[in-house]
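Here is a complete protein record:
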Amino acid sequence: MGWAYTACWSASFYPNVVINWKTKSVEGMSLDFLHLNCLGFFSYTASSLGLYASDTVRDQYSRRHPTGIEGRYNYPLVRFNDIVFGAHATLLTVVLLVQLYGSGYRRLPAQKISHSGYSILIGSALALGLAILSVTLFGSTRWGLEWLDVVNLAGSIKVMLTVCKYMPQLWWNFKRKSTRGWSILAIIFDFSGGVLSTSQLVLDGYLQDNISGVFSNVSKVGIALSTLLFDVMFIFQHYVFYADSNDEFKEDEGLEPLL
């Protein structure tokens, strides 16, 4: 099940890359979405890698989440496929940015990063950077921060960016009254991955007799649930609200980015 959700979520990145390549255009995509998505998956990969591969982080996690049984330890419910998915997703979000800036693809004059988008990007990067600096310089004694806190912060940033990145894309579709250029196939893959990811996390918790660990994995459960919610909204936009307009390509030069 773990590799199944990895395959679905990984596949969800390709339809938009292909559409952009075929049309030589990125007009269907919100620039806020593209940039927040890239930073988000970088944060997710860093968080998952820390929980999976760092003995220091895993020991700190086990100490904070005791089982109450001597000789038995709780460890993060993170698998190798989580790392593979995160690294692959980060790479594909970079490819989308290359299509935006380095390929000469068309975009509308109104397609700009909003002021709120800039604020979220800068604020997230600063928060993560300051946390890393604090632990590096002062260890866990000065401010009470440990590497587990840095990893959890990276995961929380990813959850926050997941919510923030979809809202501008919903708005962009609404302003154009169309989902043209925004692949519904990507959303179907994304939705399937969210269902499988949540199911795998619950199953792992049940098999390890560690259901509380499901909710301790902030990034994974938060991403899955928020993904499901927004994917349903995109499905309604495509098949219900703007179904008739998706056969026509609209270029409205007067559109403004979400502020």
Q: What stands out?
A: The radius of gyration is 20 Å. The CA atoms of residues 220 and 234 lie 21 Å apart. Residues 248-259 have pLDDT under 50 and may be disordered. DSSP finds ten helices and no strands in the chain.
